Amino acid sequence: MNATKGRHRRSRMLSAGAVVALAAGGAGIYLASASDDARAAGSDPVVVSTTEALEKAFAEAGPGTTIQLRAGTYYPDKSLKSQANGTAKSRITVTAFGAEKAIVDGSKLPEGDWLVAIGGDYWTLSDLTFRKSAGHGVVVTSSTGGVFRNLTTHDNGASGFTLRGDDTNDNLIENLDSYNNYDPENHGQNADGLAVKFGSGSNNRVVGARLFNNADDGVDLWHWESPVRIERSWAYGNGVNRWKDPAFEGNGNGFKLGGGGPAADHVVTDCAAWQNTSNGFTENSNKGALKLQDNTAYANGASGYFFADSATHLTRNLALENDRAANIGSRATAEANSWNTGESKRGEVPAIRGTDDSAARGPRAADGSLPRTDFLDTGTTALGADMNASRGTEPSREAAEPSPVPTEGNQHQDQHQGSAEAPETTPPPTAATSEAPADVAGDDSTGSATQPLGGSGLAVTGSTLPVGMLAGAAAILLGMGTYLLRRRRGSRMPQG
Questions:
Q1: Beta-sheet pairing, 219-220 with 255-256
Q2: One domain, residues 446 and 416
Q3: Which of 56, 81, 256, 345 is catalytic?
Q4: 75, 251, 398, 399: which has the highest count of C-beta atoms within 10 A?
């Protein structure tokens, strides 16, 4: 065949580096191909099992690319970053392979580098853990249409997950667990579970998040100019000095809903905040017309609800056993809340089914949604968060233009807490020398991995195939060649 002719040659024919392995007794075929395959829209998934393969696939991803991570721990020594755009019909997807558990560990990154930095549109990240970066865990900047589902971010040196930048639109963060994030350089002032900061954009939504045991706040919407919607999410245990920092300055709000000047009309529904060291829910100087409905604040170290200056509308919210009464200013309106029904503003009312939060802290449901629990549940639609999911939830939506990362040089004051957040510095991730991972599942001393038997997809790997796995490969290649040839000629494969 003339290699210079045939317009479908690149996308239909195997690359010169492709190999096929048939596992004895297994049903799966693994393809290891040249790097160009990672860019092909609509191509087979790129299945990776080594750090080097993950870094290459991430850097070369384009519209239609799907990267699947086999089980194990990956140790990149440079940020996984991309400015590539997918499209609404050809998303860029990075996910675990099947139900396998894949962890991306940032402990080998240079100081201050982010573990993941995405500046493109229509990305999906799902079913992965990002941990132990010396800087931010996952940062998404000026992105449209992102879907970030069933992720865990923990023990990072700044916020676990960050959404930022202007023109940030139509992003969905669903079923995020983000915890134990702490920034030692700033003594805990800037490490939030979820930060939506320094930017603007419409239709950004958070559903089903658990944001807990972070040095600063559970959720921080500092200097975000547009409404964000937060639904059925929990923030607890934030602001506790678990790191024994003698100069610790974490704020410890559950849901910090503003600050820095913008007036944004955020919406928070069916959420719960408990045992945070400061407020459960606070405007944090946001003077917008926020809406809080069907939320619960329990045993927080300051007010359950602090809305002294904004035009917030509060309805059917429960405040229970917080250290201070709800602080509701003259511009706010409040009706049918626990403090509007004759009880004290602290909401000292035995209207809940339980105070043991062990189930709330426990495993999520099989689909990644929050666990059902009687903790803080009122058993009624009339007051507080639906902790037992008995009212049902609105179905999540598949949502998904890059701009330079803004510098967080502002030193800003949390006027209600009496403490300032240290200015966050945002150096761009720097390149570093590649190093093979030490403990990716199945890795040998050379940094290549033995592919697990079974499954299917396109695997970028440097492994050498065992001789025994080549049995039957000729027959497979012949069948594939016949299929590809007929596709090239425009014919249809015969049925049966």
A1: parallel
A2: no
A3: 256
A4: 251
Full domain range(s) for residue 467: 1-104+436-496
Convert 276-326 into a string of H (helix), E (strand) and C (coil): CCCCCEECCCCCCCCEEECCEEECCCCECEEECCCCCEEECCEEECCCECC
Distances (CA, A) of 299 to 13, 252, 304, 325, 350: 63, 13, 8, 11, 13
456-466 pLDDT, tens digit per residue, is 333 333 333 34
- What is the domain count for the chain? 2
Which tokens is 11 given?
């996308």
- Note the pLDDT tens digit of each residue in 433-455: 333 333 333 333 333 333 332 33
Name the pTM for this structure. Answer: 0.74
User: Do 371 and 256 belong together in one domain?
Assistant: yes
Q: Residue 345 catalytic? A: no
Helices vs strands, H then E, count in the chain: 3, 37
The residue type found at 480 is: M
Which residue in 84, 77, 58, 82 sits closest to 69, CA to CA? 58
Q: Tens digits of per-residue pLDDT, 202-254?
A: 999 999 999 999 999 999 999 999 999 999 999 999 999 999 999 999 999 99
**β strands within 283-397, DSSP E:** 291-293, 296-298, 305-307, 313-315, 318-320, 327-328, 333-335
| CATH code (residue 394) | 2.160.20.10
Residues 168, 311: one domain?
yes
Task: Tell me how far apart the alpha carbons of residues 307 and 304 are, in angstroms, rounded to a whole number.
Answer: 10
Q: Which two tokens stand for residue 187?
A: 């003594």
Q: Within this chain, do residues 17 and 76 fall inside the same structural domain, yes or no?
A: yes
> Same domain, yes or no, for 221 and 350?
yes
